[in-house]
Design brief:
Layout: H1 10-16, H2 21-24, E1 28-32, E2 37-43, H3 56-74, E3 79-90, E4 97-108, E5 112-120, E6 126-138
Antiparallel strand pairs: 1-2, 2-4, 3-6, 4-5, 5-6
Length: 143
């Protein structure tokens, strides 16, 4: 059974992310499962740090992108999810290729959500493990 409050196509997601850091870094949401979001990011000049490997901050952007999308899809349109805390443990260096993040929820509460994000390389080796906590906020009515 799906956890999503509403359905959204991958094409709608692409349109929503136009002109953002997500588009600039080449992040693409590739799959919405019943209880996960999967996104990819190239490891190239946009995502390298000066030593020529994947920048930890780029991994965090990928992690937060996948989990934030999931968090927002769990709630209704009258709510917004905003990040409270994110952490990341960088396990393995990557010089090139594609990394894939898979975000799954630990906790889906009325006021907070906690998501786990695993980032793996093309050989399914763990690159980074991250956790995002979001606050669920009611959007004030526009009356």
């Amino acid at each position: 059974m799906s956890i999503w409050h509403r359905e959204i196509s991958l094409e709608e997601i692409k349109q929503y992310e136009k002109g953002t850091m997500v588009e600039y870094l080449g992040i693409e949401v590739i799959e919405l499962g019943d209880n996960f979001v999967k996104a990819t990011m190239p490891v190239d000049y946009r995502t390298h740090q000066p030593m020529g490997i994947l920048h930890g901050g780029a991994s965090v952007v990928l992690a937060e992108t996948a989990a934030s999308l999931g968090a927002q899809l769990v709630v209704g349109k009258e709510f917004r999810c905003v990040g409270l805390d994110i952490n990341a443990n960088h396990i393995r260096a990557v010089k090139s290729g594609i990394v894939t993040a898979t975000a799954t929820p630990f906790h889906l509460g009325k006021s907070t959500q906690v998501w786990q994000i695993k980032i793996e390389n093309e050989n399914n080796q763990l690159i980074c493990i991250s956790r995002l906590t979001v606050s669920v906020l009611k959007i004030p009515s526009q009356e």
